[in-house]
UniProtKB/TrEMBL annotation:
Protein's name in the database: S-adenosyl-L-methionine-dependent methyltransferase
Keyword Transferase: yes
GO molecular function: S-adenosylmethionine-dependent methyltransferase activity
Record keywords, A-Z: Methyltransferase, Phosphoprotein, S-adenosyl-L-methionine, Transferase
InterPro entries, per database record: SAM-dependent_MTases_sf (IPR029063), TPMT (IPR008854)
Record lineage: Eukaryota, Fungi, Dikarya, Basidiomycota, Agaricomycotina
Gene3D superfamilies named among the record's database cross-references: Vaccinia Virus protein VP39 (3.40.50.150)
Keyword Phosphoprotein part of the UniProt annotation: yes
Any GO BP: methylation
CDD domains for the chain: AdoMet_MTases
């Protein structure tokens, strides 16, 4: 059964304070996200100064065999928590945090310089004003890992097929895409951003079903509902982490 409008409104109110205020600044121009940052309406952070537990568990458990060296990217990186974490945890020489907001990247660079990040880790991190949908890189610069958390639900659902095509272009064969789906809700609703997401919708965006439950051109190497006790209240029952390997 689809959630009622009252249930949707209640969830958004608790999970995303000031979401309605944020939406007043957003237009079809991706640059309007800078206005969101300038007005301190970064509701998806919800006071966080660390990465989400499912990402940490995925990287540190060794369950997925990530290479010892590579190139990683976090689209819509915001303040850069995840970008810095990946540079530290993976030890790779190049981790790109991309965002369309100049204000966001100023905050990310400030975080990098003032929060005790070691020089060896900081040297691996690059923050860059970049429109994900306009990115084009040569084969030798494609990514071994891209991490998407809240970027997918920040874009209109009508752009999700384009998101999937771009992921296919940017992740090298053998590389990985980590999707931390939140809010993971089976039934779609119109309110957003943040918009709804579901596993089936990611499959559709990434190229359609391969007939065995996955997406064409991708192998699922990890698919988990994180334990509720590891999550904050707004994430309980609303998270799903899937790692896709590019074929």
């Amino acid at each position: 059964m689809a959630p009622s409008q009252a249930e949707i409104d209640s969830f958004h109110k608790s999970a995303f304070p000031n979401a309605n205020e944020m939406r007043k600044y957003l237009t079809q121009d991706s640059g309007s996200w800078d206005d969101v940052w300038k007005n301190n309406l970064t509701l998806w952070e919800a006071g966080a100064v660390d990465v989400q537990p499912p990402l940490r568990q995925c990287i540190e458990s060794g369950e997925v065999a990530f290479p010892k060296q590579g190139r990683a990217m976090v689209p819509g990186c915001g303040r850069g928590f995840d970008t810095i974490y990946l540079a530290s945890a993976l030890g790779w020489d190049y981790v790109l945090g991309a965002d369309v907001s100049e204000t966001a990247l100023a905050a990310a660079n400030d975080f990098l310089k003032t929060k005790g990040v070691s020089p060896s880790v900081a040297a691996k991190v690059k923050f860059q004003i970049t429109d994900f949908f306009k990115m084009s890189v040569p084969d030798e610069e494609k990514f071994d890992l891209i991490y998407d958390y809240t970027f997918y639900v920040a874009i209109p659902p009508s752009m999700r097929a384009t998101w999937g095509t771009k992921m296919q272009e940017l992740v090298k064969p053998g590389g990985h895409l980590i999707t931390l789906m939140f809010p993971h809700i089976q039934e779609p609703y119109d309110l957003g951003p943040p918009y709804w997401s579901s596993f089936e919708d990611y499959v559709h965006a990434l190229g359609g079903s391969d007939g065995s439950g996955g997406a064409k051109g991708w192998e699922i190497v990890c698919d988990k509902i994180p334990p509720a006790e590891t999550l904050s209240d707004v994430h309980k029952g609303k998270d799903r982490l899937v790692v896709w390997k590019r074929l």
